[in-house]
C-alpha cells in the first residue's frame, strides 16, 4: 500500500466555481437595498447594479432617482425588467460584484407581461447557480401580511414566497432586514 499523496488528490478534485450568493429580504422600507449596496461596496469594484423596476409614473421615477443618487460613478447600471436570467449571465463575473434589485419587481413584471412564472423562475435559478463572482439579490418578504383579497395578488404572493425559498436554498447567506436592522438567517 503506497503513501497517500494529498497534493495529487487535491489537484484531481474539480474546482468549485467562485460563487458567493447573498439574499437580502425585507418588507417595504426595511433597509434591504441600502444593506445590499453596503455588502457590494465592501468589495473592490467593479460593481454592477441590475435594476428591475420600471417607472410608470412620476412617483416611481422619483424613487428610482433616489436609488441612483445613492450610487456613485463606480457603479455600472443595467436596467433589465424582464430578462433577468440573461442579465445575471452577462454581468456576474469572477472579479466583480453584481447587485440585483429586486426580485419582487422582476416577478411583477413577468406576471404582468403574461410570461410563465415557472419557466422564468427556473431560468433565473439556473443563472444564479452558474453565476461567478459575488451576487447580492434583494427581494421583498411578502408573506407576513394579510391574505390578499384578489386572485392575482394571491398568485403573486405565493409565487414570490416560492421564489424567495428557492433562492434562499442556494444562497450562501440570507439576511432579513427589519426596521433597518439585519437579522442573519443563514
UniProtKB/TrEMBL annotation:
MF-aspect GO terms: kinase activity; nucleotidyltransferase activity
InterPro entries: CobU/CobP (IPR003203), P-loop_NTPase (IPR027417)
Reactions catalysed, as given in the entry: adenosylcob(III)inamide + ATP = adenosylcob(III)inamide phosphate + ADP + H(+); adenosylcob(III)inamide phosphate + GTP + H(+) = adenosylcob(III)inamide-GDP + diphosphate; adenosylcob(III)inamide + GTP = adenosylcob(III)inamide phosphate + GDP + H(+)
Record keywords, A-Z: ATP-binding, Cobalamin biosynthesis, GTP-binding, Kinase, Nucleotide-binding, Nucleotidyltransferase, Transferase
Domain of life the protein comes from: Bacteria
Keyword set includes Nucleotidyltransferase: yes
Pfam families referenced in this protein's UniProt entry, alphabetically: CobU
Catalytic activity, EC: 2.7.1.156, 2.7.7.62
Keyword GTP-binding set for record: yes
Pathway(s): Cofactor biosynthesis; adenosylcobalamin biosynthesis; adenosylcobalamin from cob(II)yrinate a,c-diamide: step 6/7; Cofactor biosynthesis; adenosylcobalamin biosynthesis; adenosylcobalamin from cob(II)yrinate a,c-diamide: step 5/7
Classification via NCBIfam families: PRK05800.1 (NF004469)
Family: Belongs to the CobU/CobP family.
Function of the molecule: Catalyzes ATP-dependent phosphorylation of adenosylcobinamide and addition of GMP to adenosylcobinamide phosphate.
Protein name as it appears in the record: Bifunctional adenosylcobalamin biosynthesis protein
Organism: Filomicrobium insigne
